[in-house]
Amino acid sequence: MSKLTLQKLEPHFLQRRYHVVTSNYIFEAIERCIGETAERIEKEESEKRDRYDRNEHQIFASEKSTLDPC
């Protein structure tokens, strides 16, 4: 049985390291995609909820229409 040496192990380590880096990239891409989708859905649902909330109203008044006591 031959001895294991650093020269024999190094290619295996480098190959495994490449696979780990690649798999991490894939998981990061999936996580980013899920996060973007969740933010988009949350924003859409928030807009729908605000649009149909009977207790929420936006009132706009120009500066000319405000009362000036002086």
Overall mean pLDDT stands at: 79
Helix content: 55-70%
- The low-confidence parts are none
Number of domains: 1
Number of strands: 0
Computed CA radius of gyration, to the nearest angstrom? 30 Å
Region (Disordered): 43-70
Biased composition (Basic and acidic residues): 43-57
Compact summary:
The chain has 70 residues and is mostly helical. It has one helix spanning 6-52. 67% of the residues lie in helices and 0% in strands.
Task: Give a description of the structure.
The protein is about 65% helix and about 0% strand. By secondary structure, the chain is mainly alpha-helical. The N and C termini lie far apart (about 100 Å). The protein contains 1 helix and no strands. The radius of gyration is 30 Å and the shape is rod-shaped. The protein has one domain (about 5-65). It has one helix at about 5-50.
List the helices and strands and how they pair.
Layout: H1 6-52
Keywords:
0% strand; 67% helix; mainly alpha
